[in-house]
């Protein structure tokens, strides 16, 4: 008897392939919680510690959201961290002389310019994205070093620091009502929709978010007070996820990354979408640099060095394909949370940084292998390999028998 459509939709949504990164995050938090308790340390799930993880992960997660858009289109950008570093440097150079508005405009404009340069060189000139963004990574980092001349700088004006570290609280009643709305509306839409399976798949994200919001409001109300980067991360993730899921622009982005030639033949302006992803990525890198400079109110020549690898790792942990055409921004955020939860857990348990790198690298490789093995392409590849191996074994046995008889 075939499984009903809604049940199949929920099974697919909750499968290892679809929600594996969420299960991994929950399992990691559970292990760290139990380990901390057994060692007599403060509760790992304390609101202060969880808020600290969110605040630490916010900037990388913001860049991971828009890196996911670039990866979906079939490209990638190695220059995001250097772009953020240059944007933060420009912001601190301007804030004392011309004020906060000029500093913010300078940071965002810097990111926009780098994004446009990457977009034009990749899509219009035709240079490989790896070469272009590796070149801009090096060049932009060099500009940072030239501006700073090997020295760190700090701002006297505290306005950026106040903005980047400000805390905003969502009232508990508002959070509960919003959570119930997020659960109720999708459920109502599923019940009214003739295409139940598709409706269930679309409703899964809002329902899970609503349940989580109600749970936090009841069990951990202090978590409703977060810093500016965390709230910006939430807003940008919801906005990007909604565009990808419910708009023509999102569907076209997936089409461009999945098969650019087929998308072009169907009338989609492939260059526009690929260039737009680069430009948005640069703009958001500028925002991340502005927030980073504001958080510490200073920058140095090594700021965010290697951050681009963490951003890409977060997207890959979230299941975004490096081949294009596949990816979800919320899962990329979960990937960033896994990386920073690991780092935080190691610090809480006093585990050395060398072991941190080994474990984080192992987690990334394991996640990539798991996604490959559970994807339809990966299953087809493994099936073909096993079929070929099983077909070769009888032939080898026959050859051995013939040679033995001789």
UniProtKB/TrEMBL annotation:
<feature type="transmembrane region" description="Helical">
    <location>
        <begin position="20"/>
        <end position="38"/>
    </location>
</feature>
<keyword id="KW-1003">Cell membrane</keyword>
<dbReference type="InterPro" id="IPR001851">
    <property type="entry name" value="ABC_transp_permease"/>
</dbReference>
<keyword id="KW-1133">Transmembrane helix</keyword>
<dbReference type="GO" id="GO:0005886">
    <property type="term" value="C:plasma membrane"/>
</dbReference>
<keyword id="KW-0472">Membrane</keyword>
<protein>
    <submittedName>
        <fullName>D-xylose transport system permease protein</fullName>
    </submittedName>
</protein>
<feature type="transmembrane region" description="Helical">
    <location>
        <begin position="98"/>
        <end position="122"/>
    </location>
</feature>
<feature type="transmembrane region" description="Helical">
    <location>
        <begin position="198"/>
        <end position="218"/>
    </location>
</feature>
<feature type="transmembrane region" description="Helical">
    <location>
        <begin position="58"/>
        <end position="78"/>
    </location>
</feature>
<feature type="transmembrane region" description="Helical">
    <location>
        <begin position="129"/>
        <end position="148"/>
    </location>
</feature>
<dbReference type="GO" id="GO:0022857">
    <property type="term" value="F:transmembrane transporter activity"/>
</dbReference>
<feature type="transmembrane region" description="Helical">
    <location>
        <begin position="168"/>
        <end position="191"/>
    </location>
</feature>
<dbReference type="Pfam" id="PF02653">
    <property type="entry name" value="BPD_transp_2"/>
</dbReference>
<keyword id="KW-0812">Transmembrane</keyword>
<feature type="transmembrane region" description="Helical">
    <location>
        <begin position="230"/>
        <end position="254"/>
    </location>
</feature>
<feature type="transmembrane region" description="Helical">
    <location>
        <begin position="306"/>
        <end position="325"/>
    </location>
</feature>
<feature type="transmembrane region" description="Helical">
    <location>
        <begin position="275"/>
        <end position="294"/>
    </location>
</feature>
């Amino acid at each position: 008897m075939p499984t009903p459509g809604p049940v199949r939709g929920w099974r697919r949504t909750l499968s290892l392939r679809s929600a594996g990164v969420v299960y991994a995050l929950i399992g990691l938090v559970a292990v760290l919680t139990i380990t901390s308790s057994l060692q007599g340390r403060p509760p790992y799930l304390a609101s202060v510690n969880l808020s600290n993880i969110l605040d630490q992960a916010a900037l990388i997660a913001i860049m991971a959201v828009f890196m996911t858009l670039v990866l979906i289109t079939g490209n990638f950008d190695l220059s995001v961290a250097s772009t953020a570093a240059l944007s933060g440097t420009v912001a601190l150079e301007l804030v004392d002389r011309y004020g906060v508005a000029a500093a913010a405009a300078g940071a965002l404009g810097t990111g926009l310019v780098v994004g446009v340069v990457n977009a034009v060189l990749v899509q219009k000139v035709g240079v490989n994205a790896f070469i272009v963004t590796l070149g801009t990574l090096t060049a932009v980092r060099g500009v940072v070093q030239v501006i700073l001349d090997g020295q760190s700088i700090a701002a006297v004006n505290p306005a950026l620091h106040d903005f980047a570290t400000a805390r905003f609280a969502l009232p508990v009643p508002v959070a509960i009502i919003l959570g119930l709305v997020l659960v109720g509306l999708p459920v109502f839409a599923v019940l009214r929709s003739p295409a139940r399976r598709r409706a269930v798949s679309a409703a899964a994200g809002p329902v899970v978010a609503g349940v989580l919001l109600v749970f936090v409001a009841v069990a951990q109300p202090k978590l409703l007070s977060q810093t500016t980067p965390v709230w910006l991360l939430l807003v940008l993730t919801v906005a990007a996820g909604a565009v990808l899921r419910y708009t023509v622009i999102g569907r076209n982005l997936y089409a461009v990354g999945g098969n650019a030639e087929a998308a072009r033949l169907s009338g989609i302006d492939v260059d526009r979408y690929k260039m737009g992803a680069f430009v948005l990525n640069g703009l958001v890198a500028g925002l991340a640099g502005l927030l980073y400079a504001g958080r510490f109110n200073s920058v140095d020549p090594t700021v965010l060095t290697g951050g681009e690898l963490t951003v890409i790792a977060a997207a890959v942990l979230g299941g975004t394909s490096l081949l294009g055409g596949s990816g979800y921004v919320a899962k990329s955020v979960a990937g960033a949370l896994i990386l920073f939860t690991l780092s935080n857990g190691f610090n809480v348990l006093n585990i050395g940084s060398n072991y941190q790198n080994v474990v984080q690298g192992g987690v990334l490789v394991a996640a990539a292998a798991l996604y490959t093995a559970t994807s339809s392409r990966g299953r087809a590849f493994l099936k073909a390999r096993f079929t070929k191996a099983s077909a070769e074994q009888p032939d080898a046995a026959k050859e051995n028998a013939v040679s033995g008889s001789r």
